[in-house]
Structures are given as C-alpha cells and as structure tokens.
Design a protein that fits this description.
49% of the residues lie in helices and 13% in strands. By secondary structure, it is an alpha/beta fold.
Length: 342
C-alpha cells in the first residue's frame, strides 16, 4: 500500500536583509527589529501594471471565481517575487481565505509564519502573539519596543498629513490615501518613507487652504477600483476621511506597541470601527459616507450595521477585481454627490 506523502513544514528564521511579505497589516515593528524588509503583498499586487491579469492567472490555475480577488492577486504576485521566501499570514483578524492561501504557499515551499489578532480582543493574547512572531523572526521584545519608539515621529507625520486633509484641505484625498495606505510597510524603508513624507508635508503647508464643497468619508476595506479618486475629483468632492488606511497609520497615542495594535480597529469586531467612524463624522463634518465592499467578502454583511448605527447618508459600492469604475457605479456616485450637494 502506497504511503501518502504529506509536506513537512519547517519554519525558519528569516535572514537579516531579506524581504518578508505579509497578507495584511501586522506589527511591522517586529520585522524591522529583525533587520528584515517588510512587504505588504496587497500593495505590490494592486500597484502592478498587470494586476488584473494576475487575478485571471490564479483562476486559470484553478482558483474559484467566487474567491476574493485580493487573495488570488497575492498568490500570483508571490510567483513574481521568488525572493520573498517568508510570508507572515494573518490567520485571524482578516480573511478566512488566508488559511487556504497559507496551505498552498506551504505546499509550494514558502516559509510561513502565522499571526493571529485575538477575537475578542485580549491584551495578554495579543502580547503572546507578538512575542511568538518576534521569536520566529529571531528578535526580542526589547528590540521591537525600541523600533516602536523610533517610529513615533513618523507616525506623528502621518497624523499631520491626515489633519491637513480634513482640517485645512491642503492635502487631497488621493494624496492622503497614497501615504496612509503605504504606512503598512513604509514602502520597505521607514527612513526613506519619512524623508519623502517630510518633503511632501513641507510643500503641502505652503498651499492655500481649501474649504467648502461636499465632504465625504470612505469606509470599508481599501477599494480595488483603479480610478475611484480620478472620478471623485471630477465630481468634485473632498474625501476627508479614509477609515482603514488611517488605521494602518496607527493614529492613536499609546503607551506601548501592544496597546497600539489593541486599539487598531480593523482586525476586531465592527463596534470599535463604528465608534471611530462616528467620531470622524462629527469632527470632520462629513456630509456622507461611501462604503466600499469587496465581492465575496464577509464584511459585506456589516453594511447593515453601518446603516443602522450611523445617522447620515451612505452609498454602498461593490468591486470585484482591479478595473476602472463601471458605468452603473459612476452614475450612482454622481447621483449620491448631487443629492448631498443639494
């Protein structure tokens, strides 16, 4: 009787200087303390010129049509980056599809480091997860804490960028999104990212203040549409709140790294997200919200709670794969903004 061969998964410590990918925002300070280059796989997938083709390529290999395009895009993107041997996979606090993704990557020989955001949120369990990740990466909590301290000025710059978006209008929604979304991995180098952001802020402060017009918030996961900001600027509107990209920047003042990722709203229940959105609605004087939902994502169900809990107009739009806005969605956005303007 033939004995089935089961792949033996051996986790190895990533070497300093190596590029380490991850499937959603994690305590990036751990990778930096280990001397690794962090790579948010979502960012390098969606910014690739052939992002749509990468989704199609995964489907040609057998991935179901009814699986989130982000997961398929990450899978194919790793094929384009064989140098990313180690991948941190968030197995709780993001998407259940990452379990299957993790198994495929393991079977193909990738070094997988699992990480979980505890549900419900729990400080002690989160601390254990961070410590386990630090050990797996060959570093210590003391070194991680030192990196966390060193990143505080940069996170302060990101908060200033956000303030210049909603308070003075000197930073556009597109520019706000570009920097905040990149704060998940700092484009691989906090030093270079801080220099680029510092130069940008200096230029932005010299601009005239912008006021008036329809003020929108964008909530839900980052949109997969390739031209959403192009179209919103045509309408025109001011996007002065970007829920999840802002969370990637870790906007709260905290006493330590564990508290920072405990207050990070994305991986936990929706109720902390609702509190964060309510505060933004009032502080940023929002006229309405655009709720982006991803096809085949469980977070679509939460749209009902958003509508029940928030007392302002909400337009829900859905995207599937990297592509421009379809005609119907353009018309719905135009009609929504027109209603708010009147």
């Amino acid at each position: 009787m033939r004995k089935e061969t089961i792949p033996l998964i051996l986790r190895t410590i990533p070497s300093p200087g190596s590029r380490v990918g991850f499937t959603t925002t994690i305590p990036v300070e751990v990778l930096l303390a280990a001397g690794c280059t962090p790579v948010d796989l979502n960012n390098i997938f969606i910014t690739a010129a052939d992002a749509l083709a990468r989704v199609s390529s995964a489907e040609e290999e057998g991935w179901p049509r009814t699986v989130c395009a982000w997961i398929k895009g990450i899978y194919t993107t790793l094929r384009h980056h064989p140098e990313i041997h180690t991948v941190v996979v968030v197995t709780q606090g993001d998407c259940s599809n990452t379990h299957a993704l993790m198994e495929l990557l393991q079977a193909e020989g990738r070094n997988i480091l699992p990480f979980q955001f505890p549900y419900p949120r729990h400080q002690g369990q989160l601390q254990q997860q961070i410590e386990a990740l630090a050990t797996a990466c060959g570093t210590t909590l003391a070194a991680v804490s030192e990196v966390w301290q060193g990143l505080q000025p940069l996170r302060g710059q990101l908060a200033e960028l956000d303030r210049l978006t909603w308070e003075t209008g000197q930073v556009s929604g597109r520019e706000n999104f570009r920097f905040l979304i990149a704060s998940s991995d700092f484009n691989g180098s906090p030093v270079s990212f801080a220099a680029e952001l510092g130069d940008f802020l200096a230029a932005a402060r010299s601009r005239s203040r912008q006021a008036g017009g329809v003020r929108l918030g964008l909530v839900g996961i980052p949109p997969i549409f390739t031209d959403l900001f192009d179209y919103l600027e045509e309408l025109p509107v001011q996007v002065v709140f970007q829920e999840i990209p802002r969370q990637f920047s870790m906007p709260y003042r905290c006493q330590d790294l564990t508290e920072q990722y405990l207050r990070y709203t994305y991986p936990y229940d929706i109720f902390a997200r609702l509190a964060d959105i309510r505060e933004a609605v009032n502080q940023r004087r929002l006229d309405g919200l655009i709720h982006y939902t991803q096809s085949f994502c469980f977070r679509q169900i939460q749209d009902r709670l958003l509508r029940q809990s928030l007392n302002l107009p909400i337009l829900t739009i859905e995207g599937d794969r990297p592509s421009p806005l379809d005609h119907r969605t353009r018309l719905r956005l135009e009609a929504f903004v027109d209603v708010l303007r009147r």
